[in-house]
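tool_call: predict_structure(chain=1)
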Amino acid sequence: MRNVAQYRFSGIENFRDFGGVPCSGGRLPTGRLFRSAHLGGALESDLATLEALGIVAIIDLRRPSERMRHPTPSLFREKIVASDDGDRAEAPHLEFLQQGDTSDAAVERFLLNYYRTAPFEPRHIDLFSKAFSMLGKGPILIHCTAGKDRTGLLAAFIQIAAGVHHDDVMADFLETNAVMMTDKNIAHTRELAGKLLGREPRLPVIKAMLGVEARYLEAALVAIEAEAGGVAPFLARLSGRPFDGAE
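tool_result:
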């Protein structure tokens, strides 16, 4: 059971503290590790709440085009850690919708492949490593666009490095579903996907754009075992020091 404060924002989605869980050193501290969707829609009240958290670095996992579409408020721009490498015309999820085949099997293949490859993307390795370098220097916020896939991976890696139990890592990863699968978000996503597809999107498509599944994170961890020789050497590479499960 986590023991973390609840934060309320009007213009920032999927915001939460991913500390407060048992780890090898006792308990991951609260008020130090935050995750969210992009900050582009933050209201003045949201900015005041964020500022009060004392965040020292914002790890922005988005590509340049995403950052231009939803820029971070100027109040926090000096704290942004980002990368200009690896831009693309559209986000992978939108590219998937545009390619035509949105059958259940195609959705599953796309998402599993995304999670198997995302940990090894050079831009992600760079930003994940920079996030690890900021641990212990003060509160940090990690985010992408929806705060679920790239952010979910990085949050999981930080928790695993701290010795958080697999079940607790997975519970935080899956919490996105409770936060993002709201009637409002589903309606907005149905409209967006419908315009791209030219037809009513099926539920698996909407879930792919808003939610996550345990098997996706598991696919990433299995790929890391196969491609990096295990989670330990992979995390050691990110943190720049030997992995002992107590980051």
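agent: The first helix runs from residue 44 to 52. Proceeding to next step.
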